[in-house]
Design goal:
6-stranded mixed β-sheet; alpha+beta; 6 helices
């Protein structure tokens, strides 16, 4: 549903162009952010790897995102988050047990009319581009310092036993449970300006 919502945006062709050359994508349907000076965020999602030459997807590898913040912030918000991974550095980060966004990996706001405070990269050289859809009210949104960790329990439940992130991401994304997601990603990639 988050990908359908992104696809309905008139600027979604920009995300489609990034996805066409992307090495992977991480999707978090609901990242909950809570703050009153001290804040926190947490959400569960998954990552898919893409071979740009063949266009084939592999995975998923299940992950969670969390972080804490301090500063002028107040509110509660549910955010749908899509991270487009553009290079080998980004892929390696997601293959690790955990990676810090805007610390270990550069994150920039994706070139669609979505709002984040992760930063804007006009030269398109960041490892990750973020796209968000927010529900609720929150002032002070940022992905800086958020940590993405492998969810071993979710991987074991999906794959039928323990599996590492690299092994999960080598398996073809052909299971009927992931096909609707692949169709939505392909739909975004076919959009033109």
């Amino acid at each position: 549903s988050i990908l359908r919502e992104v696809a309905s945006d008139e600027d979604s062709w920009r995300m489609g162009k990034l996805l066409s050359d992307a090495r992977g994508v991480a999707i978090f349907p609901s990242v909950i952010k809570v703050g009153l000076v001290l804040g926190g965020q947490h959400g569960d999602g998954f990552m898919l790897l893409r071979d740009p030459s063949s266009g084939r997807w592999s995975g998923p590898n299940f992950v969670s995102i969390s972080g804490a913040s301090f500063g002028l912030q107040i509110g509660v918000q549910s955010i749908g988050l899509v991270l487009v991974i553009t290079n080998d550095e980004g892929v390696k980060g997601f293959m690790a047990d955990q990676v810090k966004l805007s610390g270990d990996l550069s994150v920039a706001a994706g070139p669609v009319g979505r709002h984040t405070e992760a930063g804007t990269d006009t030269r398109f050289k960041a490892s990750i581009y973020s796209y968000t859809i927010a529900k609720g009210l929150f002032a002070g949104m940022s992905l800086e310092g958020a940590v993405v960790r492998v969810d071993r329990n979710a991987n074991a439940a999906y794959w039928g036993g323990p599996v590492t992130a690299p092994k999960a991401l080598k398996r073809p994304a052909s299971d009927s449970r992931i096909l609707p997601v692949l169709r939505e990603l392909e739909n975004i990639m076919t959009k033109t300006q």
